[in-house]
Amino acid sequence: MKLTRYQVANFRSVEDSGWIDCNDVTTLVGINESGKSNLLLALWKLNPAREGEIDELHDLPVSKLSTLRDNLGEVKFISAEFMIDKESADEISKEVGANCCEGNTVVVSRYYDGTYKFDYPNGVPEATEKNKADENFDESIYIENLNNEVLKHIPKFVYYSNYGNLSAKIYLPHVVKWLNGQVVTGIDPNKEQVRTLRVLFDFVKLNPQEILDLGQEASSYAPKGVNNQPGIPKKAEIEKAENNKEKRSILLQSASNELTTKFKEWWNQGEYRFRFEADGEYFRIWVSDSIRADEVALELRSTGLQWFLSFYLIFLVESQEQHKNAILLLDEAGLTLHPMAQKDLSKFFDKLSETNQIINTTHSPFLIDTSNIDRCRVVYRDENGNTLSSCNLRQGTDALNEKSIYAVHAAMGLSVSDILLQGCQTVIVEGPSDQYYLNAIKAFLIKEKKIAPKQEIVFIPSGGVKGISGVVSIVSSKAEQLPYVIADSDQMGKDAVKKLHSGLYKDQKVRVIEIKDIVEMDNSEVEDIVPFSLLNRGITRMFVSVEEAAFEDEYDVARPILPQIEEFAKKYSVELGEGWKVELSKAFKQALKNKKHADIPNEYFTKWVKLFEIFEN
Question: Is the pLDDT of residue 227 over 50?
Fold first, then answer.
């Protein structure tokens, strides 16, 4: 199942967060003490993979503790909406005799007494006719069994706020005991370090007991002498010890090469080489790089490198094993990393999200992917100090909220700097919804190997047609040619194009693209270059309150879609909220992500390729 959104209430600093929409990677951005961690902790306690016990004394808001603690079974602190995938739908249907359908949603809530409540927005899946025909069929028992089966299928949540850095010198007898759950007298190890040691040996496929045994001296193989003293090893024992040490050396060399090769795929801040060494009962990790050839103990390298290595090992191993399909909650990951390494970490999140949804918190602009700014949710406090979250990155006007979103503003500024300094192909669009549509289409065409841009194509929203000239003047200051502009073909867009052609783009008119040149439809906008099938789910969600009609039944493919949405909303008295166009573009981006060429009508696919081929000229 996939988490689509969640809501936190009555949890620490959170009175009611509002619904927080979730993507494959979702980033909660805010200042210290804004309550970002609380939004993760509450979600973790919905269905924790380990630990995560409810602690009403510390989890209930202090101001409400005395009034709520006696009614824990009535106080909900977390609700999460999941979309049911085909595998889960089939298994649930089989186990309880239900007609559970792929794509349906379920909202799972948890209360402070540990109980759960289940709501089915699409209606409770009905029992099969065969199930109903059973003379012992009981509707209430059926619902209870259905809920229990759904609970088995919702993802586990894994919360991380601390990553145990590896030591360079590891005493193997202690490691063997720790990994077997035994206690070493007088030593209380950091459990996060033990966890990292476990995944290290798992990753490189080494057994610490085997490494310890293979390093024994020849005397340990010889029969004991008088008074149980070590005997004098014979030729056979000496040869056995030599062979075992050679085997250990080869195993360590192989494991070192494995880690070096795999680590290089993720860490782009230098060419690092790892070497494992076993000296008696000690296991050591040495590190060198292309600039500093001399080997240095791992613990003497940068804190950032140590952190990333530990983080890398834990997530690469655990996300494929006991946490497979779990949702990873990462609290302030990567703060010790260099800014460029933080950018690499953001790419690492993308790779991890292929198997695990990720929700992370940050206040660093370098951990914000400006190509996927729709992943960001601003976390801020209201005038009473309560934590709130919003996908509207302009939410709030006071100084505190402006500080919360500062990291996003800084990230956008850095993105512009990258464009100026690194020669990206810049394309100015009117608004953020256009940016989302075109970024999604770009990623899709690259994935399908239909385009291979020589330069990174970056779409920058201008805040409307009136802002196009201003943005062009900023991003083109160091460019030989003006950036491309994509303008809607509504009246405001036509006026803007006319003005650009007669002024700034007088000698470069071909770099101003009107949408009607792509879709051959008057008054068309970017939304008209995408198939309705990929917009329908988002539109349906907008009009969920309309029972007497469906938008798709009234939709006319020969007319621009946005005016039709507004007409439908007016006809059925639906208030289109602020930013509804952006929300629709996000729904499209999500719908397109797992599609292939064959899923896209050829007329639209051709238009996409035609548009992006323009940028190569």
Answer: yes
Is there a contact between 362 and 27 (Cβ–Cβ < 8 Å)? yes
Quick one: average pLDDT of 594-600?
Answer: 91
Q: Please compute, for residue 237, the number of CA atoms within 13 A of its CA located in the half-sphere on the CB side.
A: 14
The secondary structure of residue 33, as a DSSP letter, is T
SS3 395: coil
Residues 6 or more apart in contact with residue 567 via CB below 8 angstroms: none
Q: What are phi and psi of 480, to 5 degrees?
A: -75, -35
- Give the closest residue to 488 by CA, choosing from 512, 507, 471: 512
Q: For residue 58, give every residue at least 6 positions away whose Cβ sits within 8 Å of its Cβ, in sequence order, or none.
A: 12
pTM across the whole model: 0.65
Q: Determine the Cα–Cα distance for residues 308 and 333; give it in Å rounded to an integer.
A: 10
Q: What is the rounded CA–CA span in Å between residue 226 and residue 218?
A: 18
Q: What is the pLDDT of residues 36-66, one digit of tens each?
A: 999 999 999 999 987 889 999 999 998 888 8
Residues 6+ apart with CB under 8 A from 392: 378, 578, 579
Q: How far apart are CA 536 and CA 526, in angstroms?
A: 16
**Per residue in 424-446, pLDDT tens?**
788 999 888 999 999 999 999 99
Q: On the CB side of 354, how many CA atoms lie within 13 Å of its CA? A: 7
The CA distances from residue 613 to 92, 445, 486, in Å, are 46, 11, 14
- List, for residues 345-354, the tens digit of each pLDDT value: 887 888 888 8
